[in-house]
Amino acid sequence: MKKNNRLLETIKQKRLYFDGGLGSLLQGMGLQPGERPELWSITKPEKLEAVHRAYYEAGCNLVVSNTFGVNREKYENYEELIEAGINCVKAAAGGKPDRFAGFDMGPLGKMLEPIGSCSFEEAVSIFADNVKAAVKSGADFIIIETMNDAYETKAAVVAAKENSDLPIFVSNAYDERGRLMTGATPGAMIAMLEGLGVDALGMNCSFGPDKLLEIMGEFEKYASVPVIVMPNAGLPEMVNGKMTYNIDAERFSEYMVEIAQKGGTLLGGCCGTTPEYMRKMIEKVEKLPYRIPEKKNYTMVSSYSHEVVMGESPVLIGERINPTGKPKLKEALKTNNMEYILTEGIRQDEAGVHILDVNVGLPEIDEPKMMKDAVRALQSVSDLPLQIDTSDPEAMEAGMRIYNGKPLVNSVNGKSEVMDSIFPIVKKYGGTVIALTIGEDGIPDTAEGRFNIAMDIIKRASEYGIDSKDIIVDPLAMTISSNQKGARVALEVVKKLSEMGIKTSMGVSNISFGLPERDMINSVFFANALERGMNCAIMNPFSEAMMDVYYAFRALNCMDENCLEYIGYAERKPEKSVKIPSGAADNSEAVSNNRTAEDDAANCGKSALFDSILKGMKKKSAEEAAKLVNEEEPLNIINNHIVPSLNEIGKAFEEGKAYLPQLLLSAEAASGAFEVVREKLPKKENDTLQSVILATVKGDIHDIGKNIVKVLLQSYGFNVIDLGKDVSPETIRDKAVETGCCVVGLSALMTTTVPAMKDTISLLRKTGKDIRVIVGGAVLNEDYSKLIGADKYSPDAMDTVRFAREYYGN
After folding, report:
1. Count of structural domains, the chain
2. Does residue 173 belong to any structural domain of this protein?
3. For residues 472 and 299, is the Cβ–Cβ distance under 8 A?
């Protein structure tokens, strides 16, 4: 039960409004360049109260504390700052019942594993301390905002759920492609956040309302909870030596009307907006009819990058990471050979599955630990959603907790003891669960019996607050070798459930257990099940017969526009198909596991090192580099294997075909290979590595962007002089003079710290040296970078690499 039901009930009745920007207003009240605004909650509370009061008086109901950058890692007195920040909002509210005081919780400023050094549990712990302090200080709700990473967002939500009963609102920052920095689509975030049970979700910052309006369609389509929209006042620009934004209050309010009409529920502003912006927005939007989003019935799972929706097209679940009948996988699990497991995942991804099943259950291993390790490792090399497949509740919770997204969970059944152990886990972490039609007395022989169990499971799930859309029923394909009616019964249940709109899945290959030429049976059964409405299939993607059915079915049922995917598949098919062995054991290990990384690379004309870097496999990349140094010159390895692979993943990233985690993991793999090769370089070449200075400017303690650039530059062989964060202009200038480095990269996230960037560039120019400065950060753009004297604006990390390589003539 939420503590502030009054707030949630009010949202059901009328539209509420968030406040707008804070930093630029504080600058107008005397906040100096590089000065930390959070400290004003203690040193100048009267000025904070004045700003908060102005927003309330403009008509805002949801005003948030000056705590965006506060946590124990940045401030020893974080609890005092949180209390002071919330007290300023409460004082401004004046006790009026329609004014709510929110605790504002922003990003930590560092990346989570596997692409950063901060563990998921460490992030949860830091956020948890913030939440405890906010609860103690009397906040009415928690707003987790400007998050650009799905995993960090989840850590913050888990911390809020575990340490408070306050309403939880979440707002993410999307880029020009409509994705988070780490790749997530709005659909992926909606799936995960609604699964976690947040009370409202949406987007803020990055752009003005014109750009956020373009993303609203995804929220309108998928969201079932109130949608938050808090845009910037457009893009920053310099006018008469002062930073301003290019959308005025009147135009802002007109855009917000359109956003409200497309389903925006809780509206407000971000950078550059003021009480006047909010007043005009409220004046116009209040005239519109108010509605909260209707419940949507999409059955969805997600990864860190995208959602998979059941029902739009058949969903293939790769069955390869399951030790049943797979002696090589069993041995890999026993010896903790994660490379083998990752290879299985990558190959199934390349074969075209949509979800990877992950079953690591062996009696002789620690299954909860192995599940965590496998989930974490697989998500580092593949952006496919995972199916966490286990009968052990402890292993299930271990996997679900650290999973980045909303997983598919296999499974629950109709036994009360099982439902009581599994459903609380699914409810806490959010997931779509496979429901096996097994009752207290086992598996019924009849379709009616299995159907009734499915209905009982769905009803019981609702008692735990789990919607029927998050249940996928598996009517169980029983082998026809021992039960002639096995196929017919399962297909009958699929058809009946499908007609009711209930999603279904089956482990298709079970139907042929014990029979020869199993692919003949499996493929026909697969086609029959799809025809009756089956939505998901746990199957072997290396079976040509099964993939034939999948592509042909989609082409025949208007799921493949102009049959383009079918044609592409047909053109890729090998001249000679590989026959799947028959027999009772799993039927595909011989086909999939005889291939090696060298085979995969040879098939595309690339080296095994190239391929390993491209797939982000750090250990494998170092091993392949160690082999090559005995065969080729070190510089040839760098120029012909490492750099081309980085260029390929970089190009995929820029084209939106790969995402930041994949880019960084490939960069780390390349760095590992480069270190091996570097040991063989002549000393002279090692001593003349080209250098780049990087720094986050004075007053800014957010260094995620800088650290991403650092990893990529190092992977290309540059010597990076990292000065850290909150670096003074004088320190940056002195280091450039001392080292003779002629390329400097500056980063800033906060609007209040951009003047420090301008001062830094000015000092570098006064040295009289030919120093090239490239700048980046959420508050910058091409025009503004020119106005502050930068040589180049970098919209992403790869652009910085390109700039450095061009300067040094690489």
Report:
1. 4
2. yes
3. yes
Q: What is the CATH number of the domain that holds 494?
A: 3.20.20.20
Question: 45: domain CATH number?
Answer: 3.20.20.330
Q: Most distant CA pair in the chain: distance in Å? A: 87
Q: Which of 285, 317, 335 delimits the end of a domain?
A: 285
**Which comes out higher in pLDDT, residue 179 or 35?**
179
* 398 in Cβ contact with 420 (< 8 Å): no
My answer on whether omega of the bond before 411 falls inside 30° of 0, hence cis, is yes
Query: Using CA atoms, how far apart are residues 379 and 406, in angstroms rounded to an integer?
Result: 12
Helix (H, G, I), strand (E, B) or coil at 169: strand
Return the half-sphere exposure (C-beta side, CA atoms, 13 A cut-off) of residue 302. 29
Tokens matching residue 621: 């990349």
Cis link prior to 671 (omega < 30° from 0)?
A: no
Q: Write the CATH number for 800.
A: 3.40.50.280
Dist. CA 231–CA 145, nearest whole Å: 12
Residue 775's beta-bridge partner residues? 746, 793
Question: Under a CB-based contact definition with an 8 Å cutoff, are residues 606 and 648 in contact?
Answer: no
Residues 407-440 pLDDT 10s: 999 999 999 999 999 999 999 999 999 999 999 9
Bridge partner list, 375 = none
Do 320 and 232 fall into the same domain?
no
Does the residue 463 lie in any domain? yes
Residues 630 and 695 in one domain: no
- Residue 591: per-residue pLDDT: 44
- The answer to whether residues 659 and 653 touch, using CB atoms and an 8 Å cutoff, is yes
List C-alpha distances in Å: 327 to 208, 323, 467: 56, 7, 39
Instruction: Tell me the H-state helices in 538-607.
Output: 544-556, 564-572, 589-593, 597-603
Whether the Cβ atoms of residue 396 and residue 425 lie closer than 8 Å to each other: yes
With respect to residue 246, please indicate whether it lies within any of the assigned structural domains: yes
Describe the crossing of helices 704-715 and 797-807 by its angle, rounded to 10 degrees: 50
Phi–psi pair at 401, nearest 5 degrees? -65, -45
Q: Hey, what amino acid is at 781?
A: N
Distance CA 348, CA 337 (A): 18
- Out of 537, 558, 580, pick the residue that ends a domain: 537
Which of 458, 417, 451, 452 lies closest to 434, judged by CA? Answer: 458
CA angle 25, 31, 37 (to 5 degrees): 85
Whether 387 has a pLDDT exceeding 60, the answer reads yes
**531 and 623 share a domain?**
no
Residues 181 and 796: their CA atoms lie apart, in Å, by 10
C-alpha angle 513/514/517, rounded to 5°?
85
How many Å apart are CA 124 and CA 155, to the nearest integer? Answer: 5
pLDDT averaged over the chain?
Answer: 91
pLDDT over 50 at 687, yes or no = no
Considering the domain architecture, whether residues 493 and 615 belong to the same structural domain is answered as no
1 CB-contact burial (10 Å; exposed 0-12 / middle 13-18 / buried 19+): exposed
Range of the domain at 121: 2-285
Return the amino acid letter for 581. Answer: P
- Same domain assignment for residues 223 and 318: no
Which residues pair with residue 17 across a beta bridge?
A: 267
Residues sharing a CB contact under 8 Å with residue 548, sequence separation 6 or more, in sequence order? 523
231/594: higher pLDDT:
231
DSSP conformational letter for 776: E
**Which among 628, 655, 653 has a CA at the least distance from the CA of 639?**
628
Contact 475, 506 (CB under 8 A): yes
| 602 and 670 fall within a common domain | yes
The SS3 of residue 318 is strand
Contact 101, 138 (CB under 8 A): yes
Tell me whether the omega of the peptide bond preceding residue 114 falls within 30 degrees of 0, making it cis: yes
Asked if residue 644 lies in contact with residue 610, where contact means CB atoms within 8 angstroms, the answer is yes
Same domain, 455 and 321: yes
Same domain, 262 and 314: no
With 0-12 / 13-18 / 19 or more C-beta atoms within 10 angstroms meaning exposed / middle / buried, residue 431 is buried
User: What are the structure tokens assigned to 521, written together?
Assistant: 């049976």
Is residue 261 situated within a structural domain? yes
